[in-house]
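re: ur question from yesterday

yeah so i grabbed the chain u mentioned. its 79 aa long if i counted rite. heres the sequnce exactly as i have it in my notes:
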Amino acid sequence: MKRSADDIFRRSVSAVEDQTPDRTVNVILLHDGGGDRSQTIEALPKLIETLRGHGYQFISVAELLGRTRDQVRHRLPLR
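ran it thru and got these structure tokens back, copy pasting raw so excuse formatting
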């Protein structure tokens, strides 16, 4: 079932708020099986603005792990 941008927004905010009411670390993973990403992309600005307004900060996975981007980046083999 394809989710709407509003559904993605509501479910994501609810999941974060339910899991971390004290505003500790949380990771949001948004994936869509490689298909049409338009609804996910549409949901992101509102999701980011709302969570920032609730006191959350956004950092990269590399920052979370205390590593550089190159240390966590998966390199695909050349064909």
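noticed a couple things. The chain has four helices and no strands. also The mean pLDDT is 85.
anyway ttyl
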